[in-house]
Design goal:
The structure is a homodimer.
Chain A: H1 8-13, H2 34-43, H3 46-51, H4 53-66, E1 72-73, H5 80-87, E2 89-91, E3 97-99, H6 106-111, H7 122-135, E4 141-146, H8 148-157, H9 165-173, H10 175-199, E5 203-208, H11 216-233, E6 237-238, E7 241-242, E8 245-249, H12 256-260, E9 266-268, H13 275-282, E10 287-292, H14 301-315, E11 321-325, H15 335-349
Parallel strand pairs in A: 1-4, 4-5, 5-8, 8-9, 9-10, 10-11
Antiparallel strand pairs in A: 2-3, 6-7
Helix pairs in contact in A: 2-4, 4-7, 8-10, 9-10, 10-11, 13-14, 14-15
């Protein structure tokens, strides 16, 4: 395998100097790309696409063919772990993910196995190996997992939810059952991410999509605590380089100081936090990743460029910024608008690294 | 009409001493009550219920028959103004509100009338009059409106939305069109709330349900700015008493200092902000309303009481707290659990006002 040709992303995560701000997009391999939709159709359903390492590799690389991205991210789903635990993940057209056997009781939690990444999750680890090989050193590969709290919301609700009724009912009525579930999930995520790292992931991101729906106390006890356990349990070096960890709590802007104390290398920011304020708050403790409002990509290229400039200027000069959207790119976005954003990041950021 | 017998709520909003913390619930007249569901069935659809002052009065009073609430809130919908502007509000079973004629262009905005509250919105103002009469001084009556930004999201999207694609597309591409719409909405809200106050509303709340989906800059420019205009335009005294204004931006915890500067008397808090921190941040500028996680009501009465105690203790001793949920009560909640919360607020709060 060739040595890494573009390490801007890894350096920025460790707050080392770079020539320009690196950029990638959450869900960069996704439905906004016609070539993705074609591969997806070929695969059949969404999980078949995730479970075929060659196809997962194909869609992972698609956005790199179009755009000057500084990182690739493993194409997979956040719910692979609960599925591997036997909950029976399935998707119905036009609806979110569902589980055939949601978790409701202490006995349900007790019965859950910790999946073996090289067995029930081998399709993911194989995808990491295939993608690393095909990337051939072009850009680094990001592995990822959902956070324990985020995985638990789907496992207890049995589906997407707007009100988090069942999981919060469990949290307020039977906190010990939820803690047992989260602890088992944290162990599963550690083993899963370490297997991704061993297979070639060069950085990992923990997606805490639903941490922001909690009270500040509950966030610390039921989400952050288990992410911290994961950070401490990860193998942080591979192939002679540090493997940076990014922790992203959506709607978690108020928790940045706490996130910076977990030992993670970088904090993901959604667009509801001012990245300049965020930098002042975390100082040199962590790098920051973000945080353009994904809806900016519905505007015209000229306006996109302007908004990219605002985010770069807010962060200001010096290292420690990975540019990204504040959440996944929307399926309806014109790919040319994504290109406008990515090119603008590189062009407008050079002056901040002079 | 009898003089007001319980003015705990109005006093707390003005940070005056009270004997115990007043409490009401957002959506306290709602689907979790079987008697509400019966009246609703009698009315036919949701808008028919809103448009019949006697029935709106009936459901407004229902929760007061069950619980020791310290305020009543006008039963109505936040989308009455856009409907009165001619957008054609309708509801389909199991789905959110929709508009037959959404707003898309500068010409659409230009064509919108500012509704006359005593004409197209007379049914709301009549409901205020009937409710005030029937309350007969028992507790104060709260009037309300959606914020301009929140109303505009539905008017431009044409329905509920998860991604705010159209309105943010307008915001980033044609900000001047959106500003024209928001300004017209602010004028409409001023006239609407002043009519509610003239008809007997003793406090008013502005619901900024969607202000929290914006970037900090956009929040100030597209949501807060217009709420500030409204606060300045309201008649703040009626029947020899001050009419307090509550401003509630969901997911707006980071903007409390800004909200406190608008001239509003109180800031509503959802459950993602620590109310003790919030009090330290706003000092004596505004009262605070909130902020129990509505999902606490899925737990058992004993646990509900405990969580009420946590919120009261966080706020601490002295005036300036109106207890509430951090958002509307969920339709699936057992009414006895709401009672457990309300009774706990009164019982546990007396010591903080000794």
């Amino acid at each position: 395998m060739k040595p890494l040709q573009n390490d801007r992303f890894l350096k920025a995560l460790l707050r080392q100097p770079v020539d320009m701000t690196p950029v990638w997009m959450m869900r960069q391999a996704g439905r906004y790309l016609p070539e993705y939709r074609a591969t997806r159709q070929q695969a059949g359903d969404f999980m078949s696409l995730c479970q075929a390492p060659d196809l997962a590799c194909e869609v992972t690389l698609q956005p790199l063919e179009r755009f000057e991205l500084d990182a690739a991210i493993l194409f997979s789903d956040i719910l692979t772990i609960p599925d591997a635990m036997g909950l029976g993940l399935y998707f119905e057209t036009g609806e979110g993910p569902k589980f055939r056997k949601p978790v409701a009781t202490a006995a349900d939690v007790e019965a859950l196995p910790i999946p073996n990444p090289e067995d029930e999750l081998k399709y993911v680890i194989d995808a990491v190996r295939v993608i690393r090989h095909e990337l051939n050193g072009r850009v680094p590969l990001i592995g990822f997992s959902g956070s324990p709290w985020t995985l638990a919301t789907y496992m207890v609700e049995g589906s997407s939810t707007k009100d988090f009724r069942k999981i919060k009912g469990m949290m307020y009525s039977q906190p010990e059952v939820l803690h047992a579930l989260l602890d088992k999930l944290a162990d599963s995520v550690i083993s899963y991410l370490n297997a991704q790292i061993a297979a070639g992931a060069q950085a990992v991101q923990i997606f805490d999509t639903w941490g922001g729906v909690l009270t500040p106390e509950a966030y610390q006890a039921f989400s952050l605590h288990y992410m911290q356990k994961i950070v401490k349990g990860l193998v942080r070096e591979s192939e002679g380089r540090k493997v940076p960890v990014i922790l992203f709590t959506k709607n978690g802007g108020q928790y940045l100081e706490l996130i910076a104390e977990t030992g993670a290398d970088a904090a993901g920011l959604d667009w509801t936090t001012d990245i300049g304020d965020a930098r002042r708050r975390v100082g040199d403790k962590v790098a920051l990743q973000g945080n353009l409002d994904p809806c900016v990509l519905y505007a015209q290229p000229e306006q996109i460029r302007e908004q990219v400039g605002v985010v770069l200027e807010k962060f200001g000069p010096g290292p420690g910024h990975v540019f990204n959207l504040g959440h996944g790119i929307h399926p309806q976005v014109n790919p040319d608008h994504a290109k406008a954003m990515i090119d603008a990041v590189h062009e407008l950021s050079a002056k901040y690294h002079a």
